[in-house]
Write a structure and sequence with these properties.
Length: 294
């Protein structure tokens, strides 16, 4: 009896799908490997939905707003092309000391060769090549000098005339000068007739005015103006031209010709107004008053 508890049969073998699906072994070909059937898997569950992103969208790229990259640095020059240091200046020429100078008689000693042979103490040979050391620089082109042209000398400016001395100050007549206060003692004898005739004319007009207010005012104004004429005659400040016309007017007055005296007075307003304007108006009023007296 098969093994197991007494009186009980062994259980049947468990069901295996692989054993059912497996093909039968290939007989006659023991070394051939037969692949087993792929295992069957349960149907895959659908993939979960992608998570919703809460990150803001990246800004769009604008090529024009970007900064261009800096230019690459220039390559350094190779050491072989580097500037060479400036050449040292040639040593100054030093003549041979006295103890090495050639001895007389042709014996040059241990250092001796003649200067002409280029020995010690001989000056270096001059280099005559164009632009060589020791060659004077070529003369630069100098433009020909233009011959100077003789210019006629400008006439010398005449020396400035010395300034004339300042004119002496003209004295002014005293204030409140009238026919009663004017001094006529120094009047020239030739002009004494002017003083006499004008004084008589004034006194006649003064008496005719009397106490009339308007005529009295005219007489007082005439006294101030005519007294200035007599003051100038006393100083000799009246021109001969004016004195001559005044003599004509006074001669007509002395003759009783008031019209003739008035004509002379009018002529003076044209020919001698600049000098006689101060007293001609007063004489005109006195002559007008004299004409009314007869």
């Amino acid at each position: 009896r098969a093994g197991g508890p007494a009186g009980r049969a062994p259980p049947p073998p468990a069901f295996s799908p692989a054993a059912v699906a497996a093909p039968p072994p290939a007989y006659g070909h023991p070394n051939v490997m037969v692949p087993s059937a792929p295992p069957q898997h349960a149907a895959a569950a659908p993939p979960p939905p992608p998570p919703t992103s809460t990150v803001a969208a990246a800004p769009s790229f604008d090529p024009s707003a970007s900064t261009p990259p800096p230019p690459p640095p220039a390559p350094a020059a190779p050491a072989s092309y580097a500037a060479s240091p400036p050449a040292a200046a040639p040593p100054a020429y030093n003549p041979a000391p006295a103890q090495y100078a050639p001895a007389p008689g042709g014996d040059y000693g241990a250092y001796g060769t003649s200067p002409a042979a280029g020995g010690y103490g001989a000056p270096p040979p001059a280099v005559h090549s164009a632009g060589g050391y020791g060659t004077p620089p070529p003369a630069q082109f100098q433009p020909a000098m233009q011959p100077s042209v003789m210019q006629p000398g400008a006439p010398a400016a005449p020396a400035a005339a010395p300034a004339p001395p300042p004119a002496p100050a003209v004295p002014k007549p005293p204030a409140n000068l009238t026919m009663d206060t004017v001094d006529t003692k120094d009047v020239k004898p030739a002009h004494q007739g002017i003083v006499k005739s004008i004084t008589v004319l004034f006194r006649q007009c003064e008496a005719a005015a009397g106490s009339h207010p308007a005529r009295k005012k005219e007489v007082d104004d005439a006294s101030k103006r005519v007294s200035v004429l007599l003051w100038k005659l006393n100083r000799g400040d009246v021109s001969e031209s004016v004195c001559g016309k005044l003599l004509q007017m006074c001669a007509a007055l002395d003759a009783g010709d008031v019209a003739g005296a008035t004509q002379v007075q009018v002529a003076m307003t044209t020919s001698d107004w600049d000098e006689a304007s101060g007293f001609l108006t007063a004489l005109k009023r006195l002559l007008k008053t004299k004409a009314t007296l007869g």
